[in-house]
Amino acid sequence: MDFVTPINSAARRVPIWPLYILCALPPFWFLYQGLTGGLGVEPIKALEHRLGELALQFLVAGLAITPLRRHLGVNLIRFRRMVGLAAFYYVALHLLVWLVLDVQILGQIWADILKRPYITVGMAGFVLLLPLAVTSNAWSIRKLGPKWRQLHKLVYPAVLLGALHFVMLVKGFQIEPLLYMGAILMLLALRFKPARRRQFV
Amino acid sequence: GAILGATGTRAMAQEALKPNSYEEITTYNNYYEFGTGKDDPARYADALTTAPWSVTIDGLVDNPGEFSMEDILARMTIEERIYRFRCVEAWSMVVPWNGFELSDLLNMAGVQSSAKYVAFETALRPDEMPGVAYRVLDWPYVEGLRLDEAMHPLTIMATGIYDKPIPNQNGAPLRLVVPWKYGFKSIKSIVRITLTDTQPGTSWNKAGPNEYGFYSNVNPTVDHPRWSQATERRVGGGLFAGREPTLMFNGYEEVANLYTGMDLAENF
């Protein structure tokens, strides 16, 4: 049974620009919920966690695209830039909520970045993503040539730092952050596995 | 109205404490036996059977035994205590508890002179507590106080909130409240109280000895290794709530004499 061909032909027909809008909308909904009680009695933390978790999910989705093509023949490569930029958008909003709504105090923000390892790790991940977001356009790909591919390998350490940030911040022994870390390690490991040649119909 | 008592007056006088709403107090909880999400306890704690309930009091006491909730309540005087509640995660609330002084219960059991510590244990019911399927902590949850802390008039056993029976997610039917310590010291749904002469183990201390000490007094000058304890956010302030400075002993400075001569940065 071939499930790859229908997925690939459907994927070819989906226009990409509406997906950018779709991915950009949820934070506005969260903000509305936060203002109207929909995020519970501590909306700042809820907003922070929701944005951080979505950021991780987009990062995992982005990492899955290459192994999906190499090992299963599912080609979603034309969505990769959109997924990557969405991940960056959620990481940036997560950081912004932490800065503006959570910590608020400028002096403490710097102290936290320097003193708190899980925040140092999270910030390092964000900094690694910055050049990737800036160069996620056709002009940069042309301009940078083969260097572009090299540069965008920075996403691997960035995603690992993101997952580590989550593992480090929870209290007690919790499963959820370890599941993200496990999925990410697996998706990275698949890159070292030689591709199996598939027969295409 | 609130019975402040001589010891409570000073802390209460610092500001008029406006309690959080019943909804805030009962929907934002840490009770990992029901899950690690803040809304998990409110969602799942209904399953906990709280009647009948009994508490075993043993160890260095004159009258050890298993006491039913009815038996305990018949012999205790319930009063209201409006206390600040400061979580180690740097959020806080103000809760109007109903309860009785722990010292009354311990005196009922007859504390022997050799006792130096009080150990507490939470119920462990895998059938009723979905969270204990995960080893987030070493179940059952255990806590402990030094005897003088336990006998302090600010230390209560809570049985209600806002004059209603305490909801399961807040530790029904009987929980400890030690208002000058981080919230996790105030152990919930207690089934055993043991008087000992050695310092008992406590769940969070066992899980992370460099992060959670035996004393765990609220102290703005001693940070948690992963976050600052200098400020806190009152739950219920909405999306733009600012942070407030955290007070030494959570504002209950009348307990300071319990720790005379102790380095509180070392004994955190």
UniProtKB/TrEMBL annotation, chain A:
Q: Where are the transmembrane segments?
A: 16-34, 54-72, 84-106, 118-139, 151-169, 175-192
Provide the alphabetized UniProt keywords: Cell membrane, Electron transport, Flavoprotein, FMN, Heme, Iron, Membrane, Metal-binding, Transmembrane, Transmembrane helix, Transport
One GO CC annotation, please?
plasma membrane
The record describes how the cofactor is bound as: Binds 1 FMN per subunit.
Q: According to the lineage, what is the superkingdom?
A: Bacteria
A single GO molecular function, which one? metal ion binding
What's this chain's function? Part of the MsrPQ system that repairs oxidized periplasmic proteins containing methionine sulfoxide residues (Met-O), using respiratory chain electrons. Thus protects these proteins from oxidative-stress damage caused by reactive species of oxygen and chlorine generated by the host defense mechanisms. MsrPQ is essential for the maintenance of envelope integrity under bleach stress, rescuing a wide series of structurally unrelated periplasmic proteins from methionine oxidation.
HAMAP family in the record, alphabetically? MsrQ
Q: What is this protein called?
A: Protein-methionine-sulfoxide reductase heme-binding subunit MsrQ
Query: Organism, per UniProt?
Result: Puniceibacterium sediminis
